[in-house]
Amino acid sequence: MQKANTEQAQLVKEISNVDTRKCMKCGKCSASCPSYEEMDIRPHQFVSYVQNNKVNELMESTSLWKCLSCFACVERCPRDVKPARLIEAVRLMVIRQKGQNYLLPDEVPELLDEEVPQQLLASAFRKYSK
Amino acid sequence: MQRIGVFVCHCGTNIAATVDVEKVVEMVKKEQGVVHAEEYQYMCSEAGQSKIREAIKEKQLTGVVVCSCSPRMHENTFRKAAEKAGLNPFLVEIANIREHCSWIHKDREEATEKAVILARAAIAKVNLNTPLQAGESKVVKRALVIGGGIAGIQTAIDIADAGYEVDIVEKTPSIGGRMSQLDKTFPTLDCSACILTPKMVEAASYTYSEVEKVSGFVGDFFVDIRKKARSVDMSKCTGCGVCTEKCPSKKGKSEFNRGLSNRSAIYTPFAQAVPNVPVIDREQCTKFKTGKCGVCAKVCAAGAIDYEQKDEIITGNYGAIVVATGFDTISLDKFDEYSYNQSPDVITSLEFERLTNAAGPTKGKLVRLSNHEKPKSVAFIQCVGSRDVTCRGKSYCSKICCMYTAKHAMLIKDKYPDIDVHVFYIDVRTPGKNFDEFYRRAVEEYGVNYIKGQVGKVAEVDGHLLVQAVDMLDNKRIMLNVDMVVLATAIEPDPSVREIATMLTASIDTNNFLTEAHPKLRPVESPTAGVFLSGVCQGPKDIPETVAQAGAAAVKAIGLLAKDKLVTNPCVAKANELFCNGCSNCEHVCPYGAISYQDKEVNDHGVRETRRVAFVNSAICQGCGACTVVCPSGAMDLQGFSNRQILAEVDAICR
Q1: Interface pTM, i.e. ipTM
Q2: Closest partner residue to B468 among A31, A78, A80, by Cβ?
């Protein structure tokens, strides 16, 4: 069951330890993001979605799985907002809802191609399951 | 026996709404020495002050306690009222029952109880107060201005116009500062040199000089100025420029052109330099490095070259000092994403000023530094390091960048309408007379493309610069190919300001800007008496604002210089010579350098001997009390705030 929006937003802020009010809406996070084109909700929007208690939309967003955790947004944000931490926090909430596991071993074969390195599988399991 | 009068102020409802003033009056009547107590709606009004005056006369009061607002606000008002009635002003005490009680408490009973306690403490102190007399000190009628930019020049001219002598100390070979490096100035687009150089000629100064040491105090400062060796005799040089032309060593980077061109080892920073006398850069000069050149001396018809010249220390005596040390732009070493250190076509705004200036390295032709061709498109990036709370930048807004970027964009469009100009901004801030109109002209008349969004990355791709950003209003990624990128770099106080602030005991904030005595009511004065602030050393400012502040600093300095004598604050530290053991603790903690030691003959209960004892210069002492706290033998005491008085207050509070 989904909790009330404000409570969820509070939870995201607690997990991530991000103060969304620090954002000055410059968009540098999105401008630095290598996955920008693949995301439906972009890093700068992510911040304002949390600020406006729209966490349900974020939980359904594909951005959670497109974020590379490269931390370019964290590195370059002039206000120290750390959007990647917000994405990570929402991802955790989804994983916890899905019984601690977003990526099952059975799903892996169809995702494979020749160029996928072994390390990617290991880190994907770390990232998408708890 | 003291006869004390207590006056409790309602401050309209500010105090009376939360503090039961009638009860305070009832309670203080029981205190030792109190012979009169009353309340009134506005004690600071004329009627309120006359109540104090009348009570002093009628009841022969020997002390007054006013329970009102902060002493910062009205201590002086009530002291003057008491003085008019013939009472020494230092026999008046304030109990701050507004800020300390009514404003911070909601509960009426609690607030009232605290107000009574504070009144009691003040009464206990007044019981021990003694009359104090203010002293006098002299005022030297000459001012020193540190820094020869537009701020320093304007302050110096304004002080000189009032009839006082002024010296400017400028560390570079010419006055003029940052403004002399600019091409045009907003919002009128008049030529910077045209409005600045006449002023430069008007101001005589110590150029190529630095402040070495400051001693003394308000009205009577002694300043050691190091005149660095120019290696050119200023009295002989005619400024013909032959030496700079013939100098074979031309590898030095021109500071004036921000390193975009070379200069000779003997050089004048720019054509309109004041004074028009070159200086030898001894680190670049072959004669100084190997002893084998001397071309400049050979070609100088006036015989002005002097390789033997040495630094000279001049000591000046000044009544007032104005700091006008200005600014520099921050280093971009931590901003790798903009490729400033990688690509010659990524430049700072100050470099752009030199590129577009007719006297600059390209004679005003706008070219890419990589291939010296005219760019087809230029992108400006604002807020580079400004409003940045991380360790990379500065948390404040640099204030001038929005306007000069609009100016740069317009200058390009005016000269080369075919160049595409894009400006990446976060907010456009244009609070100033005709400022917003200026920015709108850039957009509406010149067609400058403003894009809301900070740039994430600038990369060199196939001889072009690829700017990666997001249009925040469109939520679309922008990949823009441009030929040149101009960064509006954050400004910071000139690095020399720290050392100067230390010498002057003037305080600086976390960003190294000099702190003003009061941000609203005393914006051009330093908390250190006799030290004034002019221009960007106090905070980011544009030229009109700098000139206005320079004038204000000049007026404050003139106000000081116009006085024949200064009244000193009698609430200063004083050492009891019999108790002093000469340990130097007080000297070490004194932030104003007011304490020194003297060998003095003392008579200790019939025993005469010479002892090393502390001596407080009452003109320098600001009465902070740090010395009284560290004195192990209790010899140091602050007049008006003696240890006995403070302890009596504590006793009254704990009663």
Answers
A1: 0.87
A2: A31
